[in-house]
Amino acid sequence: MLERRAGIAAPASEPVAAPAAAPPDGDWTFKARRWIERVLPMDHLLPRRQPYYVGSWVYVFGVVTIAALVWVIVSGVVLSFMGPQWWHVSSLGRFINSLHFWSVQLFFVFMVLHLWGQYFMAGWRDGRAATWMIGVVIFATSILTAFTGYLSQQNFDSQFIAISAKDAMNSTGAGAFFDVLNFGQMYGLHVMLLPIGITFLVVVHIVMVRSRGVVKPIGSEGSPVS
Amino acid sequence: MDSAAHYFDWGFIHISYPNLLLIGLMIVLFAVALVAPFPHGTDRDA
Question: Quick check: B40 and A55 CB within 8 A?
């Protein structure tokens, strides 16, 4: 073993490993790897060059939305670790609470601006309908997450919102399994299930954008794309 | 911040001034993003 590490050739009598044969059909890891390489090659996932039309501030709105989401998640993790007494009483807790709130405001502002940009450039063209629809689902899930967040503040504001919302929820029948007066349920949804859902959908959204590239401007279907 | 916001009323439109201001700023930001020059690096096409 020591000789091999030193780079000395093995004796001729030692058996030599056969060259790798083509994997059998049942090799799912090989198939999965080939599928990923075909659908999402690395030069699509991390491109070094972008088409000329990407040189516009309109394309920045999406990545700013993601940056705001990162701040929302980071501040939310700190809040969930420290708890309501901390975020209401201590100065640092109130600062992190405000950071969480204002990051959410920026997240929604830039998500809507990103939506406007994609709407007016018809971002669903050329096989990108699923990418658009996942964006719509992210938007709806974000509204639900923000709503459960307002209900999780543990103050008079959250109580007022819960009391105001319960009749609307009950009138739709949703109150049977979505009880806005149940703090534990709202808090659990807000800090666990909904953030996981949004993060997963955002990752899928980005991977789909990268796999197909950014949609060409309307009227320039024939223009070259790198 | 603890006082109730003032509202803008026009026909069926009923919206607080802070929300109206925010929507106006978003529209302005969107318009600026369309026309403002974008810095181009040396590695971009064209």
Answer: yes
Say if A28 falls within a structural domain: no
Q: Is pLDDT of A217 > 70?
A: yes
What percentage of residues in chain A have a pLDDT greater than 90? 65
A9-20 per-position pLDDT tens digit: 445 555 565 555
Contact B33 A57 (CB under 8 A): yes
Instruction: Examine residue A19 and state whether it is found in any structural domain, yes or no.
Output: no
Residue A166's domain spans which residues? 125-214
Helix (H, G, I), strand (E, B) or coil at B14: strand
Is the same domain home to A137 and A193? Answer: yes
Tokens at A35, concatenated: 């599928």
Domain presence at residue A142? yes
Domain count, chain A: 2
Q: How many CB pairs under 8 A join A and B?
A: 39
Q: What is the pLDDT of residue A225?
A: 45
Tell me the per-residue pLDDT of A59-102, one tens digit each, with 9 for 90 and over: 999 999 999 999 999 999 999 999 999 999 999 999 999 999 99
The answer to the question of residue A17 being in a domain is no
A226: pLDDT strictly greater than 50: no
Domain identity same for A160 and A186: yes
Regarding whether A160 and A84 lie in a shared domain, the answer is no
